[in-house]
Specification:
The protein has 412 residues and is α/β, with parallel strands linked by helices. It is built from 12 helices and 22 strands.
Amino acid sequence: MTQAIVIGAGAAGLRAAVALRKAGRQVLVLEARERIGGRVHSVDDREIGATLELGAEFVHGDLGELKKSRLRLEDMDGRHLAVVDGGLRDVTKDFYGVLRELAKATGAGTAQSWLARSDLPPLGRELARHYIEGFFAAPAAFVGVSDIANDQGLRTRRVVGGYDRALRPLADSLREDSALRLGTVVTEVNWRKGHVEVKARTRTGRDLAPFEAEKLIVTLPLPVLKRGQVTFEPALPDKARAMRGLRMGAVIKLGMRFDDAFWWTREHERLGFVLAPGQPFPVLWTAYPVLAPVLIAWSAGPGADALVDLSDGEILEQGLRTVRTIFKEHSAPRLQGWYVHNWQHDPHAGGAYSYVAVGGYGSQRALAQPVSGTLFFAGEATVSNGHHATVHGALASGERAAREVLREISSS
């Protein structure tokens, strides 16, 4: 019988499984998708020879566990422009000033209440709200002050050549002895101390023979757990209580490739980000410092809620509308290719990444706690050291869950 089963081949699940295999344990990873990565979703555009990220894209602040991945990173040090009074204004200094103020935020309550009593000027307050709702993928009224008080956003780097490069070697090592099964949708976990039975089906709906193991590591995203897409018998009321203190951010991401990078003019030659409050996609970013004719459109939190039920084609139209408004370009004829991912409609994600609801302090730690030395939990929603919602936080959680399993095995 397999010693451990891992549900999910995202960053947390892959790191946990590899750590267990290195310790000489038998492990099997079950992944519902036909690809690895989870919310890391890298797409190669062969027309321009570049990789577009429809999921995780940036590294904010400390590299953490990503140091082990030897990824090539580049600083996103281009200029920040904002649509102000119908025109484009350079707000680079204003923007980084706002980030420094956010890093010093103190007090109780929500980010919205902090904004109301801050001494930021009107433009700074608007940039701060814009950043908070985009970064946390949630309304400012739902984000606690303790969450915004960090300096992760002061340095932003992009992974060159695909974020999935951090995960491919992990998956390859598991494939060597068939320890990774894709297209396997877990539906039910029956467990008792020291034993789990995992029921699953193929993506076409065919039931598979149950998988059995001594231990189980669960790395499912928060909405998948909340919705009960995988049932646990006996049930886990402590986990249900923990999840009530956590929320999932809504994100829609659109990549557009044009015939030319018309946004780089003499006046805007180092353009990196454009902030466009009130637009369907209130944030756009370029490939700078790489000179590629690609714009990424990002809508998160309240903005994404307004787009979530549109078709992909309708979402594209909203993205092109945003481009026309900002750059005054009739952009549709110039469009050469596009990619979109509506993370709320992804059945295996249900959103982009988690955040702590007001009053939810301690929920991440409670979600991470093992159950009866048999069930273990990892994933970015279980990270309580400030690195939740990040890939390196997810990797660290997988390493932590593997250590917990190994301690339990060695003590039994």
